[in-house]
Every structure is written in C-alpha cells, then in structure tokens.
Amino acid sequence: MLPPLPYAYDALEPHIDAQTMQLHHDVHHAGYVAGLNAAEDTIAACNASGDYSRLKEALYAQAFHSCGHFLHSVFWQNMAPVGTGGQLSAELRAQVEKDFGSVEALKSCFLAAGKGVEGSGWAMLLSDGKQLKVGFHHNHQNSSLGGGFTPVLVCDVWEHAYYLRYQNRRAEYLEHFWQVINWADVSERFAATV
Ligand code: MN3
How far apart are CA 70 and CA 76, in angstroms? Predict the structure, then answer.
C-alpha cells in the first residue's frame, strides 16, 4: 500500500517544488509499491507451482522495490513544512555532539555523503542506539554500512528527487533539503533505537 503524503504537494515550497513532490510520490513511490507487489506475486507463484526458474529475478526485484518503498516512506516523514519540523530532542542533540561534534558538523558530513553518492542512491543518518553514523545507499539496497543500524534521517539523491528545480545542482538541493527536516520525527526515530 502506498502511504499518503503527510502534507500537501506544495507544503515544502520553495525548497522542494510541488510538481516534484507529486511525481515523486504518486509515480515513483507508487512504482516501487507496484513492483514489490508484482515480485511477491511471482514468488508465491513459484512456491505454488514448484517452478523456481523466475525466483532469482523475483527476489532481486523484491529487495530493490521493498527497500525503495521503505526508504521513501521514511523520507516523506523526515520532512515537514518550514517552521513546523521542531528541534532535535536533547537526547539526539547530545548523541550528535558526541559523534560529530556539532549539528553543523553533522550537516557538513551528511551533505558531503549526499554529494558523494555516485549515480542514484540515498544519504542516510543511521543509529544503533549507541552511535550515529552517516552513510549512503546506492540503488536502494546496497548499503555502505553493516547490519544493526536503523535509518533515522534519509535523503533521496536520485535525479527524480530534485532535477525539475535544481537540475544538476545536487549540492543546492541538499542545502534546501536541510531546511525542511522534521527534527521531531528524526528524534522519535532515534529514540526508538535506544
Ligand atoms: Mn525517489
């Protein structure tokens, strides 16, 4: 099931434009949900028939689309209209200061990670409850970090996330993403890992 956006398409203007949000949610995210459903139908058909000739491609598609579905679902919640996203909780701020030195240093690291993704992927802040790390995913499912870490803040740096407004200026898009972070949501996700 495609979760609804938690705000209007134009709620993140001027940082993220309404047309991008509409296409990104209604077409791209919907595509991952449809792809996941199709892959799971194929896996069920393999099990029902005993013919596993299509299983490998279906499992690959399941991993790709389920990761895309999950990360987009977090991404929408990680953003909020300007002025409504709140602040870092005291606990999250303390952990950021311990692991990065300051929120500004986290921002620099996160934006550099987003700029550094080659091709398509995600910049991510991950927590295992004891430590925060910045990392990235290439093409959704290939993570640069091992297990045990949960994404608490993710930013989509596939071109469909920013190209209409920012074209090739991904760094500019990342600066604008930082203006619409829902810190209340990030803080809640962090608290759930502790
Ligand atoms: Mn996307």
Answer: 10
Backbone angles phi, psi at 11, to 5 degrees: -70, -20
- Which residues surround the ion ligand 1 when the cut-off is CB under 5 Å? 28, 156, 158
CA distance 155 to 12: 14
Task: Find the 29 Cα to ligand 1 centroid distance in Å.
Answer: 7
Give per-residue pLDDT as tens, 49-76. 999 999 999 999 999 999 999 999 999 9
How far does CA 53 lie from the centroid of its chain?
32
Tally of residues, the chain? 194
pTM for this prediction: 0.94
> How many Å lie between the centroid of ligand 1 and the Cα of residue 42?
24
